[in-house]
Structure formats: structure tokens, C-alpha cells
Amino acid sequence: MNTSTVRPLAVVTGASSGIGRELAGQFAHHGFDLIVAAEDQGIHDAARELGARGVHVTPVQTDLTDYDGVEKLVQEVRAAGQPVDAVAVNAGVGVSGDFARGTALRDELNLIALNVMSSVHLAKRVLPDMVARGSGRLLFTSSIAATAPGPYEATYAASKAFLYSFSEAIRHELRDTGVTVTALLPGPTETEFFERAGMQDTKVASMDKNDPADVARQGFEALMAGEDHVVAGSLRDKVQATATKPMPETVKAKMHGAMAEPESGASS
């Protein structure tokens, strides 16, 4: 075996299922070794499946809503003993319902901890080494929900808007460093998200959804091309993201609310 050949290394969070697992699959397909993280036992199954593709995969089962949980992942990354070429900050969760009357504070704060705080935390740990080396790629999984207010998933949409803004801002700061930052904005995708967020009875949950493999492929391609963002999914999603840009926020909020309101899917 030629031990002088070292494969590039990628880190993917939320990699036990959905878009995260498919992103990890894209990296594996393109010859990256992997460090994959999620809070559930399924991350070990995902690692075995990915490893069967001929790359080395390190699973990290950790709670990224917790500061020490993120640091556990960072320690595993540093223990790999090689530079990280790409990081896909993908782990996220949703909460559905009327913010003032229908959701629990603990769930809302847990969402912010995972979607926002852990993303900033991990980025803060990996970017300095990339900048010092003069190369690296960082992907944030935002959402098409970032482009409008999100009634009945208010903190989720706001968290994804944060990630989109954060991604574009640090991309500008790093423009002369050799490090690129890309935001992935998928439309509704066939994952466990709607069940976990309690959105099964909404209109958006009953819509035709994107294949997570297609979303991941589009995200991977945008990342490798160094694009600032990509609206991933169907032509419908891309048209929607463009068409709603000039609309007042109140109109966009009304449109989103009609799709995400609990029990809105019952009459569809």
C-alpha cells in the first residue's frame, strides 16, 4: 500500500440521515475520507455504509446542542492528524406551531442551540486552520425558508436566515484567503424533518418533495465550484426563490403561513 497517498478529509454533521447522509455519500464517492457526526446511534450505521465505498470513516456520536458536544467533535477532527479540506455544517432541527401559544420554550432554545450556536462554534474552530493553510471549503445547510419570514416555524426560518447571512458575511471576509464558504438552500425535501418537527398535518408536508440525494449532489457541486449559494431542488424551488425576492415581507409571511399552519394539510 502506498502510504504516501493521503485522501482529502471532510467533516459532515447531521450525517446519520437525510441530506447530511447524502452529503457524506457525495464526499465518499469523490474519494474523501470522512468524520461524520450526529447525536443518534444511526451515525454508526451510516459510517459502516460509507466505509464500504473504500474510504476511511470516523463516526462521532455527540450532542451538538451542547458546547462540550461540539468540542468532542473538534477533538476528533484534530486527532485525525491531517488538514480538513471541507466541512459540511448540516445538523439542524425544526419546531412547528404557534410560537406564543403552541410550542415549548425548551424546544425553541434547543433549535437555536443546534441550528445557530453549534454552527458558529464549529465554524470558529475549523476556519482559522483553513485560513492559515490557504485552502478549505465550508458548507452551511440553510434552507429556502431563509428567504422569507416563517410563521408556524418562526425560529426555524429565522435560524436558516441567520445561516444564510452568516455564510455570505464570512465568505466576504475570507475572499482573499483561498477559503470558500457556500450556503445550501434546499426546498422541501423527503427526509425525516417533517415528522421530527411535528409538521405532518401541514400543506408543505403533503407537497411533492425533493430527493435528498439530488439536493446533496447540487450542494456538493456548488461547494466544489466555490459558489456563494445554491437553491437546491426542483425548478419550482428555484423559481420561487427568485419570484419572491421583490415581495413585501408581510406578503411572504402570509404565503409561508398558509403552507406551514398546523392542520392546513387536512383540507388539501
Tell me what the structure shows:
By secondary structure, the chain is of the alpha/beta class. The chain has a single domain, classed as Rossmann fold (3-Layer(aba) Sandwich), CATH 3.40.50. It is globular. The chain has ten helices and seven strands. The chain has a seven-stranded parallel β-sheet, with helices on both faces. Helix 3 (67-79) packs parallel to helix 4.
Keywords:
alpha/beta; Rossmann fold; about 270 residues; globular; single chain
CATH homolog superfamily? NAD(P)-binding Rossmann-like Domain
Please give the largest β-sheet.
7 strands, parallel
Described by its quaternary structure, the protein is single chain
Order of helices and strands: EHEHEHEHEHEHHHEHH
Query: Briefly, what CATH class?
Result: Alpha Beta
- The helix/strand class is alpha/beta
Q: How is the CATH topology named?
A: Rossmann fold
**What is the strand content?**
5-15%
Terminal CA distance:
59 Å
